[in-house]
Structures are given as structure tokens and as C-alpha cells.
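sorry for the late reply, my laptop died twice this morning and i had to redo everyting from scratch. anyway the thing you sent over, i finally got around to it. pasting the sequence first so we're on the same page, its 405 residues, then the predicted structure underneath. double check i copied it right bc i was rushing
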Amino acid sequence: MTGFRRILALVLLGGVFVMEGYDLNAMALAVPRLKGALGLEPAAFGWVFSALLVGIGVGGATLAPLGDRIGRRPLIVFGCLGVALSTLATSLSASIPAFLFWRFLTGFALGACLPNVSALSAELAPDRLRATLMSVVSAGIPLGLALAGLMTPMVVAAGGWQGLFVVPGLFAALLAITLGFVLAGGAPETVPGAPPRTKAPQLELFRAPWLLPFGVVAAVLSLNAMNLYFLNSWLPTILPRAGFTLDAAAQVAGEVQLAGLAFGILVSVLIDRWRPGATLVGAFALMALCFLAIGTTAPDASRWTLLLMVGMGGASAGGMALPALCAYLFPPRLLSSAVGMGILVARIGAILGPPLGQVMLGANVAPRLFLAAAAGPAAICALVCLAVPMALRVREAFDARPATA
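ok and here's the structure:
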């Protein structure tokens, strides 16, 4: 692949994450508007949010690892096409079961696609900038989340709540067509001296020596994903209860994602150039402190927006940096499998996030206490990340083995 085509491929792979971020936020931004449009109560959408996550987990575990065997291109192109069709179909939904069905299919297509996007971006990146470039590519997620929030007033004015799904659906279709031409086809090359490929490479993650690195990544991904989807799903609904207007809440939801983009790139640069373990411990500890501060203060637009930018920025940074960390923890032949299985395990936690918010919403929990609940998982993530240096040594020991070992 030529230098120009490599750069173009990385830009388009980043576009896949922009599409994902916009699509993830679309449902959260649509929910407060569906009571008036369709007579559907916001509290009924907890499992709709989770349906997307279940789909991502299933797709990540069952289809994504095929990228390690048959190549990344088919999974990425057809995954984008699946997202386009199911997201556009979501705009035609008028009941909870319909939203459940189409959001699950959207997630399934995303789950097949995204781990291979992460793996391919790692393969296209120079070794010394691997985590940074992977995170720059995945920075499309908070950028897409931000664009969804910032564009909501214009999109809804032009196309109603349905426009929130039409925009990412059309963008996904455009990406599928463009990536089909830009990405090289074929199966991944076999590295001399590497172990033979297996039909189920993901099973290697549950055996020595990869069990410890995968356990660390999976635990932190799960807890962080629970926070991320708990907050992203309900922030546009909970902030109006603290005195924000609907449009102001959508704007805040966009602004905090831009902060997440900046934090994610900073954390990834530090992973490349400094200490991965200390970087992640510090990021999650700061996140926990921000949500504790929200829990102990009265609602204030300026103060809460700043604390949310740092706190939710930390959650977005974790979502960007942890897949990038996988490039240092696992060999290339296991990278799609590691990211895909990490997504599956993460969804166990993420699936709990929206229903937890639904229960708290139904119990009329005060907004400041609602948001303060995110401090607990963030603090546990900081503790788990203390084991990152030990996990990195597993990969170092594996790489140091003789080629015939």
C-alpha cells in the first residue's frame, strides 16, 4: 500500500469510528423527543440502549475474529453496510420492540466491524506511534458523539427525530462504498516462525500466557464501558432535571465528547512515550474525583459542564486508549480476537449501564447523585490498572522466546 493510500485508509477508518459515535449518541438524543412524537416514555428505553450493546458484543465475539483468518476488509466493508441498513431502518420504528430489533442488528454489524478497524489501524501504523495513531483513529468515537450533540438542533429542525438516524445511516453507506475501493483485499500474511492460525484464535486468550493481559483489559473495558454507556445514554435526559434545557443538555453532551477526544489522544501519547500503567491509573482516578465533586455540589451549569468534560472525557479516553493498549499486549495474529473478545466481555458491564440508569430514573434519584454513581466503577478501574505493567511483561517475555520455542 502506497503512503498516500495508507493515510487515506487511516482517515476512512477514523470515519468508521465517527459514524459509530454519532450512531451511539443518536438514540440517547432521540429518547427525550419520542414521548411527544410517539407517546413513548424515556424510562422504557433502558433495554433499547442495551440491545445495541448486546449486538456489539455478539458481533465482536462471533464475526470479528474472522478478520484474523480471512482479512480485515470484508468484515469492515460489510459491517459498515449492515450499520447503514439497520440505522436507516431505526428511523422508521414506532414501538419499543422495533427499536430493540434494529438497535441489536446495528450493534451486531458494529461488533463485526470495529475490532478489525482497530486491528488494521495498528497494522498500518509505525511501531513507535502505534497507540497514538490507533487512538487518533478511534478518536472518531467522541468526535461522532460530539457532532451528534452539537448538530441535534439543526438535524431535528430539518428532519425530526428520524434525522438523528438518517444522518449516520447515509454516512455508513458512503463509508462502505469508499472503503471497498481503498482497502486491500485478501487474507493477512503469515509471519515466518509464527504459530499456525487456528479456527478459534479467541480461545487462546483464555490460556497462558495471555490470560493475565486479557483479564486486565477485559475488566477495565467492562467497568469503563458500563460508565460510558450509563452516562452517554442518560445525560441528555438527566441534565434537564437539573435545570438544563433540552438543547443545552444536547450541547453539553457534545462538548464533553470533544473533551474526551483531547484526553484520549493525550493518554495514548503517554502510553506510547511514558508509562501505560501510571497513565491509566491517573486518568481513572481523576475521573472518579470529578464525579464525586458533582455529587457533593448543587447543580451549576458552568461548574457541572467543566466537571463532566473532565469526568466523561476520562471515560471516553479509556474507551480509546484500551484497544490501543492491546497492540502492546498481544501479537498481531491475536489482535482482532483480543479486541473483539474484549468488546464482548466489556458489554457485560456496558449492558448493565442503561438499565441501572433506568432504575435510578424511575426512583427519582437526584441528578447529582445519579452522576456521582459513576465514581465507583472509575475508582475500581484505577485499581485494576495497577496490574498493567505486569501484563506488559507477559508480552515482553513471549517476544523474547527463541523462534523455535
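The chain has 16 helices and no strands.
thats about all i looked at so far, will dig more tmrw
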